[in-house]
Write a structure and sequence with these properties.
Shape: elongated
Number of helices: 27
Oligomer: single chain
Low-confidence stretches: none
Strand content: 15-25%
Helix content: 40-55%
Mean pLDDT: 95
Radius of gyration: 31 Å
Length: 827
């Protein structure tokens, strides 16, 4: 892809359509021409990107999306408007001049690029970020949101349980991968677990900049998010206060982490604050053009996350409140697009996204209760509207203060009094305390609580939607965090609204009002800047380890090298998620990015009869069949042979995951080293059994820990119970030899012992000492009876006494370790 084509694509996707639409001489153009030059550019970019995303979603839902088609449509729109309006698109001196203030958003954007770059290389499957990225690339390749997976449909019905058994769920048949559901195995119909607006943006990034662009699309959203918060805050609390708030936001650990880590919340931050600003421009500033912009942005928000409905409901409540109390009109240009999008969105969640929606459905009120609540809210609004001549001024004066005081009282309760009880989990009871201790600290939180009263009372009617949405998010997520309580995972809840909103309130409280009626003094401005600089220093220091880390650096190159070993005529089987390894995360990019044929085994001990029948069928469909293994899979038999192809170490940096009560200490190495074998259906001749544990042993070991190298030997640690599959035996063998090491157990640990069983027959117990030594046990003749004729390998079962290094070294290895095993021979 040439640089010129990439730049043209970026212009057509992210600037030109919005630029000409913004300049249209309609809907009181003079109002938007009067906006600062830097905000005008921001709107032109955001409108272009939003339109492009709408196009991707709509055409991909119909299965006809093409990148070239998007570029052609955007070029046609641009050319048609330029040709139709010509000179009337010029400002002719009516636009606000460029001032030195333009340097502020430029500086913030540059800070964001530096702060969030280079971004993670999260193309692995398994968790939400990898699902988002790979789904985006799949949309780019297929042009469809709802796809038919030929590899799935090619699995014979009798073999489906090997890979995706029927889970008996009304909403889907089974799992293709973690986060990807199979709706119909016969047709191969698959659907991602998550709404597809963010993947639609990943599709655009992939087509602009390849796999690197797809993985790092979130960086662009993080930069746009900073600008959206800045412009929204500049209108509400002034440019200087907003600049400091966004500067703190860019320094904060949460923003830095999720600015690099593919997630829907960063896009939600951009659309949410862009939507709030356009809503205020349309309704409080009475600019009709922004009514349509708000409708577009908020309509898109619905297809990002289901909890976007909460934000839209809060905005609707704010509009209703302003209409009832202040008599401000509600623009149909906002209501109509959002209503249409809400109807389409509900259909989207109830039907194709039903597997995602079921969690929300289970917690939503009944239809009757929902209708009753809407009717009651409408009734109260109409009553207030009717009584406005008598109570309007009172409500306008005291309602903002009451909201601010209520938030402060709730915060005080959550910070000092709230304790777990009944159905209230400990992490939910401590949600606000965790937010304070891990991410924002006391100075910033106290300033924000002051802002809840001061800024809300002073500025509420300038942007009621901001304050109502902030209150709704605060109550909803600090009441229950509603996500797996792990650091840093749960911090995603703070990204869209809570963290940026809190910082705007804190900065607004410290700087005070900047309106002509309330000019701030130089002394107050300097004091506020110094206080916020101290907070910024706290944020930067806390975020330093995260800022120095790139999640999964090297993954893009490593997976490209793995994919290069195969062709589209090959089939790759990947060991089970239950095989004590994470190799299944490699399967997703192999399928979605490199369009290879991959199936993940469901069990580490697949049914051999089913597997032999499947391999017979696969031999007629594919040139070669491979298996990717690491943790241990028992699948060999007299008819299934495996030839080693390659062993590839792979270690990727991954930040530690901890519970909510403990903060991660930093990055570690994620072991994704793998062995590759080619499977064939061929009788296995008898041969001496010699297994070098830790080296091409993946199809003969089960329930061991990952391979390691020590003293120049490849070894594995046993678990409490481990298994070895011994194939090729003649039945004449009479002795098993094990090379073992106790691992250097500390004083006080349970002595190292291992019980050995052969096909269920106890061979005895070995007391394992320090150093690698050979231990021999006799095998009774009765235990060998029938071994040579059996289709399945003989089974060696090892029962080990275990110990955990963390019991002796704080913060150490938490694995329950048995003994080191280096070699097994049967004579």
């Amino acid at each position: 892809m040439s640089l010129a084509w990439t730049l043209l694509g970026a212009a057509l996707v992210g600037y030109l359509p919005g630029a000409v639409l913004y300049r249209l001489p309609v809907l009181q153009r003079a109002r938007r021409a009067a906006l600062p030059a830097e905000e005008r550019v921001f709107w032109q970019v955001l409108i272009s990107v939003a339109w492009s995303l709408l196009f991707v979603l709509a055409t991909a839902a119909a299965g006809v999306y093409q990148y070239e088609r998007l570029l052609a449509v955007n070029a046609a729109i641009t050319i048609a408007i330029v040709a139709g309006f010509r000179a009337r698109l010029r400002w002719h001196g009516s636009a606000a001049k460029v001032t030195i203030a333009v340097l502020v958003p430029i500086a913030l954007a540059a800070l964001g690029v530096w702060r969030f770059g280079p971004g993670s290389e999260y193309i692995l499957g398994g968790k939400d970020p990898g699902v988002y990225v790979n789904e985006g690339v799949a949309i780019a390749h297929s042009g469809a949101l709802f796809r038919q997976d030929a590899t799935v449909s090619g699995v014979p019905a009798a073999a489906r349980d090997l890979f995706f058994p029927n889970e008996g769920n009304d909403d889907y048949y089974g799992h293709r991968f973690m986060g990807v559901y199979i709706n119909d195995p016969a047709s191969g119909g698959v659907i991602t677990q998550f709404p597809q607006l963010f993947p639609a943006s990943v599709a655009l990034a992939f087509q602009l900049a390849g796999t690197v662009g797809a993985a790092k699309a979130v960086v662009a959203w993080a930069v746009l998010g900073l600008l959206a918060v800045y412009f929204s805050g500049a209108r509400l609390i002034g440019r200087l206060a907003s600049f400091f708030a966004v500067l703190l936001l860019a320094l904060n650990l949460v923003e830095v982490w999720f600015g690099r880590y593919p997630n829907a919340e960063m896009l939600m931050q951009t659309l949410l604050f862009g939507g709030l600003l356009s809503l205020a421009r349309a309704h409080q500033d009475e600019d009709p053009f922004f009514g349509w912009v708000a409708g577009l942005l908020l309509g898109l928000l619905i297809f990002l996350r289901f909890d976007s409905f909460m934000a839209i409901a809060a905005m609707a409540a704010a509009l209703a409140l302003a209409w009832a109390v202040r008599g401000q009109r509600i623009r149909l240009s906002t209501v109509v697009p959002v209503t249409i999008a809400a109807a389409a969105g509900l259909a989207y969640y109830v039907w194709p996204m039903r597997a995602y929606f079921y969690v929300y459905k289970a917690n939503l009120p009944s239809i009757g209760m929902g209708i009753a609540a809407i009717v009651a809210a409408a009734g109260v609004t109409l009553i207030v509207r009717r009584l406005r001549p008598r109570i309007g001024d009172t409500l306008a004066r005291y309602l903002p203060l009451a909201l601010g005081i209520a938030l402060v009282l709730l915060a005080a309760y959550a910070l000092f009094l709230r304790q777990p009880a009944g159905k209230l989990a400990e992490h939910d009871a401590a949600a606000l305390r965790t937010f304070r201790d891990a991410y924002v600290y006391w100075p910033a939180l106290l300033a924000a609580l002051a802002g809840c009263i001061m800024v809300t009372r002073r500025e509420f009617w300038r942007d009621p939607a901001f304050f109502v949405v902030f209150a709704a998010f605060s109550v909803f997520f600090f009441y229950k965090i509603r996500v797996v309580p792990e650091q840093l995972w749960m911090a995603r809840r703070f990204v869209p609204m809570l963290l940026p909103g809190m910082l705007l309130l804190a900065s607004g409280a410290l700087f005070g009002s900047s309106t002509p009626e309330h000019r701030r003094t130089m002394r107050r401005g300097i004091g506020a800047a110094m206080a916020l600089s101290f907070v910024g220093w706290q944020f930067a220091a806390a975020a330093r380890p995260v800022a120095a880390h790139v999640e999964y650096r090297g993954a893009i190159k490593a997976i490209a090298q793995l994919a290069g070993r195969f062709t589209t005529r090959d089939l790759i089987l990947v060991e089970s998620r239950n095989a004590d390894s994470d190799l299944h995360v490699l399967a997703v990019p192999l399928v979605d990015i490199y369009r290879l044929n991959v199936l993940v085994l469901f069990s580490p001990v697949p049914d051999r009869g089913q597997l032999e029948a499947f391999l017979t069928d696969a031999a007629a469909k594919y040139d070669r069949v491979f298996v990717l293994a690491s943790g241990g899979t028992d699948l060999l038999s007299k008819q299934i042979a495996a030839a080693p192809v390659a062993f590839v170490p792979m270690g990727l940096p991954e930040y530690e995951t901890t519970g909510w009560e403990q903060f991660p200490r930093g990055p570690r190495q994620k072991d994704l080293g793998y062995s590759l074998y080619q499977l064939t259906l061929a009788p296995t001749p008898p041969r001496p059994f010699v297994l070098d544990v830790g080296y091409f042993d993946d199809l003969q070991t089960l329930r061991f820990y990952a391979r390691e190298v020590t003293e120049g030997r490849s070894i594995r640690w046993t678990q409490a119970q481990s298994f070895i599959a011994a194939n090729g035996l003649t039945g004449q063998e009479r002795e098993i030899e094990l090379v073992l090491h106790d691992g250097g157990r500390p004083a006080g640990a349970t002595p190292a012992t291992i019980q050995v069983f052969f096909n269920g027959t106890s061979l005895g117990t070995v007391n394992v000492s320090f150093g690698f030594k050979s231990y021999r046990l006799a095998i009774p003749a009765d235990a060998m009876r029938g071994v040579a004729d059996a289709d399945a390998p003989a089974q060696i079962r090892l029962l080990s006494s275990t110990w955990a290094p963390s019991d002796f070294t704080p913060g150490g290895d938490t694995r329950q370790l048995g003994v080191m095993i280096d070699r097994v021979e049967i004579h």
